[in-house]
Amino acid sequence: MRLSFLGWLVLVFIIFAGTPSNAAHITLDSTKSAGEIDSLKSVYHQIKYTGPYTTSFYTALSAYPELKNTTIHFKHRNIKTTMQCRPKVFSVFRKPDKRKFMMVFNRNQGKSRGVAIGELSFNARVGLFAHEIAHVVDYVKMSSGQTIGQGFKYLTRSGKIALEHKIDRMVIWKGFGHQIYQYAHEVLSSQSITDDYRLRRKRIYLQPAEIKALVDIVENPSLNVNR
C-alpha cells in the first residue's frame, strides 16, 4: 500500500504523540470569573502564578491535571526565546514527582528579542503557556539520567528541533492546536522581534502550515492513512 504525504503525516503524528485522550478543539473563554480562577489556583496549589496574564496561564494549565502536585516558580531574565520552562538545577536529581520547575520570561532587553507577551492575543498567550507547560509534563516522565541527556541533546540543532516539535505535537494533542497556531502566526508576523529570533523560530519550531495540517488530522478522524 502506498501512502500519500498526508498519510505519512498522520502515521508519524500517531507514533510520536500517542493516543489522544483530549484531542478535540478546546473552546476558550477569556472572561473567566475570579471564582473560576481561584478554583484553579486551589487545584494547582503549588503553582503560584501572580503575573498579569492569570487567565491565559490558568486556562492553559487546566488542561494538565497531571501537574496538580507540581511546583513551578517564575522569573524574568534575558533569554533567547520568549519564554522557557525547565527543571531547577538541583531538582534534576530528585524523583520526577518531587522536582521543582522554573518558568522564565524574557525581559526582551538582550540581543535576541522575541515578541512581548503583552502584544499577543489571548489565544496566542494560551498557546505559548500550553507549550511551556507541556515541557514540564515531558520532564516529569524522565529519570535524572534522561533529563540530563535531554539537556545535552538540546545543545545541538537536531536535538532542539526534535524536542520542540515533540512538545508542539503534545500541545495539539491536548486540544490547543488553534492556540499554538495563533501563537506561531503572531510571532512570525510581529515587527518587533529581531531577525535572529525570527530565524530561530523558523528553524526550530513547527511552522503555522505544519501546525494547521496536524490540527486538521486531530479534528477530522476521517483523515486516515488510506486517504
Could you list some keywords that capture this structure?
three-stranded mixed β-sheet; 8 helices; single chain; mainly alpha; 227 residues; globular
Mean pLDDT: 84
Count of DSSP H/I helices? 8
List the helices and strands in order: HHHEEEHHHHH
Distance between the termini: 11 Å
The main pleated sheet reads as:
3 strands, mixed
Rg from Cα: 17 Å
Contiguous uncertain segments of 5+ residues: 1-24
Strand content: 5-15%
- Helix proportion: 40-55%
The geometry reads as globular
The number of distinct structural domains comes to 1
Broad structural category: mainly alpha
Strand order of the largest sheet: 1-3-2
Oligomer: single chain
Total beta strand runs: 3
SSE layout and pairing:
Layout: H1 5-17, H2 34-43, H3 54-61, E1 71-77, E2 83-87, E3 100-106, H4 122-139, H5 144-153, H6 157-189, H7 195-204, H8 208-219
Parallel strand pairs: 1-3
Antiparallel strand pairs: 2-3
Helix pairs in contact: 3-4, 4-6, 6-7, 6-8
Architecture overview:
There is one protein chain. With 227 residues, the chain is mostly helical. The chain has one domain (33-219). Helices cover 50% and strands 8% of the residues. A 3-stranded mixed beta sheet has the order 1-3-2. The longest helix is centred in the C-terminal third of the chain and has 33 residues, at 157-189. The chain is globular. Mean pLDDT is 84; it is low at 1-24.
